[in-house]
């Protein structure tokens, strides 16, 4: 039986009674609609597969009213194709495609290069595995492999198929019909961020060309190229980069540029998709303002490049628009001079405004500030008049204390003086025995490796200490001749 599509009813292909053939061990062969059913020890169904042959096949064995063996096989067909031709022209985009039917049979897969490296594989279409090789050359010739992972239970989950790709020795890709988008005119301040648009399509690779500013006869320079299938890029020394990485992965290209004055000019972005080219031209004017100062003046310069689309350039005073500003102009620059020192009239903001033919305007601002007239920080002015206060005479609003109060304070002071004197005398009398007598000689003995004492017989002195004497036992505290007091006979000095 066969189920050609998901959800459709089963169709009977063969129904054979094999009881007699099996007993006689004969091979049974049946033919029907280009299919051959062969029955021996096993059951085989042979036919030449086409796109109409895809689907599920069921082999059902019945004995009596009981089914004792059933096997279902999913047959999927893969079709490999190569474009634009079997032999690829030089510099064209080779497209390697694997189409699997039914599409639900594919769980995943990838294309491998001739060296075995995985290639970017697009599976946005169900059952289709696509990879591309832009700007194909002889270095890309070889055998490419498509690995397909099937869905469901299978003893062989990954199937590999190969495709041979060769390049032509004579044919070179031609792109005579380039589709151009509308011309864009942009103006930007120097080093500001500028987005250069490209055609709004999903492309395979992109090239960016640049013509120098104000040079109509100059030849274009290829400054950036990017191949999203190989994830490879080539870039000159221009400060330009691809904009919006997530969009780049899907083939939608644009560029981010922070131009200097010399980077103005004409840019052409060419997006290639298969054998088609879509171009977008952007004319970029760059404005660069700067100032120079001398002892007598400030010179404001307004320089600009790519003059072909400029309508006007002028200097003005923001706070006083009617202020007359004499300007001198040279090719690609407008200059004004501000005399020093600044005055309330000449101080303020100055603007150089550039206007394009399409109405877009940009401007450079410069602020001229007058020097500050405020006193330095933390310095205060002295008062105009100083008030002198006599320490001997009372000031206004102050009256001296009465005489009775002064007499009471003096009496208390006279009472405290003798009390303090007596206390000091008692303290000195108590500390008297702790002082060294004048006739006691203190010396340090030389260290000889043993503990020594300045007395010949210290024990005798401990047993009968002399009157009014202080006993000191001096011993070594280290390897130097330093001693310290270990014991005192008179405990009152402790």
TrEMBL record:
InterPro entries in UniProt: Ig-like_dom, Ig-like_dom_sf, Ig-like_fold, Ig_sub
Gene Ontology MF: a single term: protein tyrosine kinase binding
Domain of life assignment: Eukaryota
PROSITE patterns hit by this protein: IG_LIKE
One cellular component (GO) term of this entry: external side of plasma membrane
Domain Ig-like: 1-69
Keywords: Membrane, Transmembrane, Transmembrane helix
Gene Ontology BP annotations: interleukin-15-mediated signaling pathway; positive regulation of ERK1 and ERK2 cascade; T cell activation
Protein name from the UniProt record: G6f-like isoform X1
Taxonomic lineage of the native organism: Eukaryota, Metazoa, Chordata, Craniata, Vertebrata
């Amino acid at each position: 039986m066969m189920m050609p599509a998901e959800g459709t009813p089963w169709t009977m292909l063969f129904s054979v009674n094999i009881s007699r053939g099996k007993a006689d061990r004969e091979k049974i062969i049946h033919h029907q609609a280009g299919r051959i059913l062969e029955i021996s020890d096993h059951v085989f169904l042979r036919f030449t597969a086409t796109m109409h042959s895809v689907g599920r096949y069921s082999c059902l064995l019945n004995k009596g009213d009981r089914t004792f063996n059933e096997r279902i096989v999913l047959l999927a067909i893969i079709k490999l194709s190569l474009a634009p031709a079997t032999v690829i022209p030089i510099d064209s985009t080779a497209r390697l495609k694997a189409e699997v039917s039914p599409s639900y049979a594919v769980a995943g897969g990838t294309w491998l290069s001739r060296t075995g490296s995985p290639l970017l594989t697009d599976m946005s279409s169900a059952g289709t595995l696509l990879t591309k090789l832009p700007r194909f050359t002889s270095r890309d010739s070889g055998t490419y492999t498509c690995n397909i992972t099937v869905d469901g239970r299978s003893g062989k989950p990954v199937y590999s198929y190969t495709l041979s790709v060769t390049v032509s020795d004579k044919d070179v890709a031609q792109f005579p019909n380039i589709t151009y988008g509308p011309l864009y005119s942009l103006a930007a301040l120097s080093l500001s961020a500028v987005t250069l648009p490209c055609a709004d399509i999903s492309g395979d690779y992109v090239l960016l060309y640049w013509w120098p500013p104000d040079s109509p006869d100059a030849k274009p320079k290829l400054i950036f190229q990017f191949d999203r299938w190989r994830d490879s890029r080539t870039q000159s020394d221009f400060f330009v980069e691809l904009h919006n990485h997530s969009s780049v992965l899907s083939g939608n290209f644009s560029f981010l540029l922070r131009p200097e004055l010399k980077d103005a000019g004409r840019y052409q972005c060419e997006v290639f998709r298969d054998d088609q080219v879509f171009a977008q031209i952007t004319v970029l004017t760059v404005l660069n303002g700067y100032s120079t100062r001398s002892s007598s003046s400030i010179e404001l310069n307004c320089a600009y490049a790519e003059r072909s689309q400029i309508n006007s350039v002028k200097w003005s005073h923001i706070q006083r628009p009617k202020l007359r500003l004499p300007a001198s102009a040279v090719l690609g620059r407008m200059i004004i001079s501000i005399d020093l020192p600044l005055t309330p009239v000449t101080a303020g903001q100055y603007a150089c405004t550039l206007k394009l033919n399409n109405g877009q305007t940009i401007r450079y601002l410069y602020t001229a500030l007058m020097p500050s007239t405020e006193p330095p920080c933390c310095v205060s002015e002295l008062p105009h008049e100083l008030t002198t206060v006599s320490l001997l005479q009372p000031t206004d609003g102050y009256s001296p204390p009465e005489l009775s109060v002064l007499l009471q304070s003096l009496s208390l002071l006279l009472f405290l003086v003798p009390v303090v004197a007596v206390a000091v005398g008692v303290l000195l009398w108590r500390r008297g025995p702790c002082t060294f007598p004048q006739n006691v000689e203190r010396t340090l003995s030389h260290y000889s490796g043993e503990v020594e004492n300045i007395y010949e017989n210290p024990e005798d002195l401990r047993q009968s200490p002399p009157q009014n004497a202080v006993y000191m036992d001096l011993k070594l505290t280290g390897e130097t001749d330093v001693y310290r007091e270990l014991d005192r006979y008179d405990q009152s000095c402790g």
